[in-house]
Amino acid sequence: xxxxxxxxxxxxxxxxxxxxxxxxxxxxxxxxxxxxxxxxxxxxxxxxxxxxxxxxxxxxxxxxxxxxxxxxxxxxxxxxxxxxxxxxxxxxxxxxxxxxxxxxxxxxxxxxxxxxxxxxxxxxxxxxxxxxxxxxxxxxxxxxxxxxxxxxxxxxxxxxxxxxxxxxxxxxxxxxxxxxxxxxxxxxxxxxxxxxxxxxxxxxxxxxxxxxxxxxxxxxxxxxxxxxxxxxxxxxxxxxxxxxxxxxxxxxxxxxxxxxxxxxxxxxxxxxxxxxxxxxxxxxxxxxxxxxxx
Length: 294
Prior knowledge:
The chain has helices spanning 7-17, 31-40, 42-45, 54-59, 74-83, 98-116, 136-146, 164-167, 180-184, 187-196; strands spanning 2-3, 25-27, 49-51, 64-67, 87-90, 126-128, 153-161, 202-208, 221-227, 233-239, 246-253, 256-261, 269-275, 284-290. The chain is of the alpha/beta class. The longest helix is centred in the middle third of the chain and has 19 residues, at 98-116. It starts with a strand and ends with a strand. The relative contact order is 0.11.
């Protein structure tokens, strides 16, 4: 059951309907939103079973729910589903607070213990939609770090800028939700910690609402700086301002560097530089590794 028929819910629903082995249902308590989805997306959603409450959806005993609801509902709905032995794929961000996230994990642990007590029972799984862990190019860079190809990693920088995110938002929720920028781009902090395999010792953030644009949010530009026990310093730049979009990752080590341009999708290549000399020019060997060869 796909819960929520906003833009991300529609995307999940459409892609799931392309899989012949999956039976898809929709859950949306807002009657107008559900009707609009069934009309606008009738090519794939027209014949699907629907539910008008989350309780009704769980009563149908689905194998899994995909939570595409506001983040303030993620913890409550995830816990309800896990307590009903239903698998959960929760869209990011995971929850509204750290305490809620811990409660979600605790619910999954309880469900596993229940399953262990029953022969043949399958424990429900809680997963969060940080899908970039499976991005071929990002996995290449993670492997380069883990195998020491870049030496000691000294600096990592993410740059994500997209006015298009706001322009494509049908609900315009970002206009009234402080911090929406960090919620939409939770991928980058997650990616950083997943890639370097280290927890930061400190994090500093600065943001503001600037510019004259057709849509905005508070803040619409943010800079994050992370310090790590190893000496690594990482920075993340996020904005709702740039058009066309920009998405770049840079990793600098003492034996080499790697960069990735994420935009446009489908054309990403990892560029790798390896130190070959410490002569006057500081020569490097630059190579390109296709993301598809990961």
